[in-house]
């Protein structure tokens, strides 16, 4: 039978404990399907558009006003 030493002689376990604690604090949904911070920063801002059928077909597209 192998006896265990009083002090483990391996990598620093405090670092592993910190990682485990951080994972425990994270919501489960975030662990399963994370949203990368870079995607959240690049998410486009929606632009206001006219209602369907309100297009003015007699004006060229570059001159058409989208807000009245």
TrEMBL record:
Bias kind Basic and acidic residues: ranges: 14-27, 40-59
Region listing for Disordered, in residue ranges: 1-68
Descriptive protein name: Uncharacterized protein
